[in-house]
Amino acid sequence: MKTSLADGFYAVFDVGSYAVKAILIERRSGKDRVVALESELVQPLGEFPGEAEFREHLVQQLKLVAARLPMGEIRECLSVFNSRELQAKLVEPPSQVPPDKLPSVLAWEAKKLLSPTYRNEPFMFGWRLLRESPPSAILAVIPQAILQRHDDLYTAAGIHLTGTYAEVFGSLALKEGSANLGLPALSLINLGHAGTHLQIFASGELKFYRFIPSGAGDFSQPALPGEMEGFAQKIRFSFDYFRAVSKLGHIDELRLYGGGATRPEFFSFARDYFAPGKVDTLDVSNAIDISPILPQMAEPPGPGPRHVKLLPFLPALGVFRAHADPAAPAANLQARLHELAWEARMARLTALLPLWLGLSGAMVVTIVLLFWRISLADQLDQVRQKANITANDLISTRVRLTRLHQARVPEVKLSPRDQSALQPFLRPQRSADEILFLAERKRPPGLRLTRILIQSRSQNEDEIAEEEEAAPDQSQGAPADGDEAGQPAPPPPPSGPSQAQEQETIDDPGGEFLTIHGWTRGYEGLAAFAEGLVQARVLRRIRQLRLVPKGSGDQRFILKGELP
Question: In which domain of life is the source organism classified (predicted)?
Fold first, then answer.
């Protein structure tokens, strides 16, 4: 069973042949009140070139009505369903049918109600149990294709329906909300523009239902007496048939609602034509609060119909009350359509499930293989890196072996103490590129290098002797960097080695010498350059540092030192 509706706003739409209507209802603490009424006129089908254009017109009118409602705050949207293919019938199943088998019995009865055009087509049906013992129910059936087009119309307008009910279920809900109406016989007549729904209740129970394919749209403006009498006779024929079947004398009350009930000339005519029965409009003010819309309903003076502006919206109000009923799920055509669509989707999913499982398994296997390939690629890269490292180590080892074979130096095993004592003398000499790099790095600004020579001891001594014979006294007169500023230059170093240095040279072992030729601006920069070479272990000691004077500006220098 359905639980009661939650508090909030509910909108009910009614697409008729004369107007598109909507009623907004607010529920608070189980009490309902009508908040707003909206409508837009519908142009006749004959004014459009085809059915598609007319359908697009209905969509646009629905959008206009919905735009004036707070759609973002509405909990549910409902609709009234009317169609010439909609068939409704009172059914009395055999009393021995158990309650759980009643839907299947009603489905068989619904199939028999379909027109020959749709006899073999899928259909949807809704029902409402009127009496349990003996069982009695009202049944409404519609081809599924027509109901689907109805849902597509609202979907195109941006409205998601949660409930769609036939008009007969709304009439039942309106009758149940109005107490003490017409005992023993009452007739509710929904007088529409293109059709009329007639219900007859006896002792509060629905006993007769009929749809008359004629309405207020058949009347002139204003309605002629002959037109109204012809329409009233169709209603009286239904009353006569009901009296013949039920053995009742006459109909006590007639309650009119719908758009046609607002015609004052027909209302006056019906009071005289159906006498002694009481004719009036359906009043729902006792069942629902209509005070918020009373300012919109300026009642005309005189004995005419009451609540004229509310009457066309009463079928939509009845659908809301039917939706709030606990038995609503059985009568909700929209819910059954959604259920059928869900079953169809599940059936397709079940049919495609093996395929999806196969695709999923293939994807899993593919992903595993891809990860495996990536892992193998990583392992292959690591092996390649190790192979490259091993190859480089092998090349380095071969180079070292080649050097050892070329040097043919005998291996001498020394004690740690002897190794520490001989370590300063066993340091390897720097290569030529290292000497060039460090010489350029230690070169101060203002000093240029023009020539660098690495010589043996004998070559160095021959060159020193030749330079001393050519210019024995040039080194003593070399000006300092400070001459341009008028300051005396510091005394230059001696051009030749001293007696102590000669003694040290005799004691030192043989080695190679570095000779650097260049130009400098002053003695201070040259001295810093020489000191930097010694600190960088490019030279072990300076053997000769000579500055050759050459007028003003840069001066040529010669620096000779012993390599480590």
Answer: Bacteria
Q: Is residue 399 within 8 Å of 391, Cβ to Cβ?
A: no
CB-count exposure of residue 167 (10 Å: 0-12, 13-18, 19+): buried
pLDDT tens-digit readout, 490-503: 444 444 444 444 44
Residue 520, SS3 per DSSP: strand
The residue type at 451? R
Whether residue 222 has a cis bond before it, omega within 30° of 0: yes
Is the pLDDT assigned to residue 426 strictly greater than 80?
A: no
Three-state DSSP state, 540: coil
CATH of the domain at 49: 3.30.420.380
The number of distinct structural domains making up the chain is: 3
Using an 8 Å Cβ cutoff, are 509 and 426 in contact? no
Expressed as residue numbers, the domain containing 185 is 179-282
Are residue 58 and residue 139 in the same domain, yes or no? Answer: yes
Same domain, 349 and 221: no
Domain final position from 371, 398, 421: 371
Asked whether the beta carbons of 251 and 187 are under 8 A apart, the reply is: yes
Q: What's the pTM value of the predicted model, to 2 decimals? A: 0.62
Helix 523-535 vs helix 432-442: crossing angle, to nearest 10: 140
Position 401 scores a pLDDT of 84
Question: Looking at the structure, do residues 266 and 304 belong to the same domain, yes or no?
Answer: no
- pLDDT value for 159: 95
532, burial (CB in 10 Å: exposed 0-12, middle 13-18, buried 19+): middle
| 379 falls within a domain | no
Residue pair 150/81 in contact (Cβ under 8 Å)? The answer is yes
Q: How far is it, in rounded angstroms, from Cα 561 to Cα 543? A: 5
Q: What CA–CA distance (Å, rounded) separates 538 from 562?
A: 9
Burial class (CB in 10 A: 0-12, 13-18, 19+), 522: buried
Inform me whether the pLDDT recorded for 438 exceeds 80: yes
| Cα–Cα dist 66/95, whole Å | 46
Instruction: List, as one string, the DSSP characters of 358-374.
Output: HHHHHHHHHHHHHHHHH
